[in-house]
Specification:
By secondary structure, this protein is mainly alpha-helical. The chain has two domains: about 1-30; about 30-130, no CATH class. The chain contains six helices and no strands. It is extended and about 55 Å long.
Length: about 130
Amino acid sequence: MFPGWLQAALFFALTGYLLHEWRYLFQRNRQNWESLASRLRWASNDGSKQDRGIEDSITAEGIRLVVLDLRNSKNRFQNAGIVLEMADFIERNASSESAAAHRELLQELRRDAMQIRLDAVFSFPRVAFGD
């Protein structure tokens, strides 16, 4: 069917991809809430990075404010990805009753984060090439 070199290349590519995904899932499952919250990029009004406590980011409103408040589209894009990871973390680690009670909030967070990511992606060309 296929030449031997092509089969070997496909085998190694697939093996590499599966190892990469396994490593990602292993690292994702070892994360805790504090490590996720510490990855959020906070900014003050003057644009400098501001050191805030993790307890400020635990509420959903706090997460929404940190993602929406930043002016830099790169930071917004990265924070929105972290918020998506936080929503996944909550869903994986919450009890079934708690997850069911907060399902609407999690969907809202995911929707907002995806909207922010899309807005940031569409703003990259405008920034790169000017308006």
